[in-house]
Amino acid sequence: MPKSLRLWMLTSSIVSLLGVALAIQQLGPHPLSSNSTSRRSADLNPPARPSRSGQEIAPQGLFAPPRGDVRLVVISDLNSQYGSTSYDPEVTKAIALIPGWQPDLVLSGGDMVAGQSRALSRVQIQAMWMAFDRTIAAPLRQAQLPLGFTLGNHDASGALSPTGSYIFNQDRQLASAYWNQQKPGLSFIDRAKFPFYYTFTQKDIFYLVWDASTAKLSAQQLAWVEKSLGSPPAQAAKLRIMIGHLPLYGIAVGRNQPGEYLENAEQLRSLMEQYHIHTYISRHQHAYYPGHRGQLQLLHAGALGSGPRQLVGSDRPPQKTLTIVDINLDSATTTYTTYDMKTLQVIHQQQLPRQIEGDNGTVYRQDVTIN
Known about the structure:
Shape: globular
Strand content: 15-25%
Helix content: 25-40%
CATH class: Alpha Beta
Strand order of the largest sheet: 4-5-6-7-8-10-9-15-14
Structural class: alpha/beta
Distance between the termini: 57 Å
Number of domains: 1
Order of helices and strands: HEHEHEHHEEEHHEHEEEEEEEE
CATH superfamily: Metallo-dependent phosphatases
CATH topology: Purple Acid Phosphatase, chain A, domain 2
CATH architecture: 4-Layer Sandwich
């Protein structure tokens, strides 16, 4: 990277951090959700010592869920219109609030920038990644929060031309250049194909990130997935989580069709179950839905940026969301606390459909038992 560009990114990051600090001061208290009056709220700034499991922790004024052994914050689909170097207010609000939940790890589900357009120049794509860095990545680094992520179709689409070449090869090259200059704070196991697919561990959990930026996964990648899931680090972990942009099943209006979910979903689910994957975290559908199918938990993270969508079969309006995942390692259970980032109110699972009859399969809500 040219020296001038490095200096520009450093200056931009400093300005961004000052902006985030101001945003935190301006957020102020917010009403508690209707059934959370007995919950305590934590200070926005985390304590110096690590928090303990069971403590009720959240930014000031928000519903404070009991902390698990491990806490994740899941954000996704952050981008705006093609080529945009700005983010919606809900995105900057979320980044300012995240340290107050005291997570062990932040997971981004892709579409961090707004590429996938041949009209965008190299300079424009680089500008988008610099905007992502100063608005999102730099504040998380400053808070010393590790950032795991998967690349979305608007970051680095894996779509192929009839000749087998990448249609958006420039997007992929520049995404790789950006991420290979960063230190996301992850304990990598295999980063040979980083940032497209890789594995890491944290607090007895094994994470596998695959390149699900398109509906079809290559045979080469699937062979790597199976080898990675069968490896000693994966099988020795107390829990295994997979992360990808496209989901296994369609759940959202306008995305419930081929090309918007992964091909061969049942075979992929069978592979995950074979290697005891607990949860597959996906995005792209722009709608939050905590689900399960078979033995696999399915967390569909909603959109935090532009374009949230309705769930199939639901009249509930679209919402921009952020999800806290609290994990109990001994019982291998996960608890989701999801906030509407416009109102900062909690979205309760019972407000969502019991099941979604998608184009390629039925997904059941997390709390619904199937005999």
